[in-house]
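Usage

Read records sequentially. Each one opens with the input sequence:
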Amino acid sequence: MPNGSPDGDRSTAASTTAPASNDGAVNPRTAAATAPIVDVAEAVRSIGAGGVVAYPTEAVFGIGCDPSSVDALRRVLAIKGRAPEKGFILVASERRQLAPWLAPLEPAWRSRMDLAWPGPVTFIVPATWPVSADRDAQSDADSTDTAAALLRGGRRTIAVRVSDHPVVRALCEGCGHPLVSTSANLSGRPALRTAEAVAREFAKGSAGLDAIVAGETGGRRTPSDIVDVRTGRRLR
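and closes with the structure output:
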């Protein structure tokens, strides 16, 4: 189980002095400033304002944001150098938070979820297909469709998980909705397991993170399992 409390004991701002790597070289991405290490309450405020934050999960630190914010989703892709067709995982504190993104669930699917959650199992589930019947709300519909497409990676399914990590749960409860979850690393590089490593890797601001949540990962050595909820087949 995770050792860190939701609010952590290290909720102090990180130094704005550029951290050095093991060989003494300064990472140019963090030469200007590093994102502050904050508690859950401050991270919730940042997410609510459209921010992008890093936070501890079961195995590694993740990067997340409000899944309905197109701008924040695009920032996550840019920060990681991630291809949009890969989509994202949504993490939640309880299954009902995921309902707006999911197509109606068959009883067998719900049973699979309930047996595995909360816990480190991500399910691939048929997704809703947002549309607007109100012509006056077309701009909102377009934004929702774009956010949904980015979350799904253009597919008709979406990856979802109800986490048992206390920091993830506290963030989702504080925000009142799920969070985007993707590993805190530049695309193709190893995932990061501490707040300090994340601070060294990513710069602060529009091209980087707004905050890093204090806390420790849950101790898993591998990412969450991925299972197709329709068949029960393990994909990872």
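Summary fields computed downstream for this record:
- The mean pLDDT is 83.
- The helical segments are 40-48, 70-80, 107-116, 138-152, 166-175, 195-201.
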